[in-house]
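Predict fold of Transposase; 137 aa.
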Amino acid sequence: MNYTQNQKISQITPSTLIVGIDVAKEKHVARFQDDRGLEFGKRLFFENRIHGFQTLLDCVNRHQKDHHKDHVMFGMEPTGHYWLNLAYFLKAKGYDVVLVNPMHVKNLKKIKVYRGRKLFKSKTYGHNQSLKPYVLL
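Predicted 3D structure, encoded as tokens:
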């Protein structure tokens, strides 16, 4: 799908729950936030298996109810082939899945340094913050 920059940005609204996922071989890490970058809860570690994916969706549903969000957007780097199972699972459930350019995440991490200290604990922060220039699956 070819979206203009404005169409991409307009898909993230105040009612959107943004889920950034750091994809790995065995365990993924997810963070939850709103359109302004406010984080919800702690990061979630889940396995790269069907029951791990269901754990992620249970947590997403809880955050949706707690924070009154009616739209969810998942963002992840296309790391090897490890992201495919999760992306297909989420798409089959009807969610928006966004692939984030790894260079955007890397460059954002370089920018987000405050007095020599990093402002985020994991790459998932970078995934969430770089959803604006994304590729929609």
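Residues 117-122, 132-137 have pLDDT under 50 and may be disordered.
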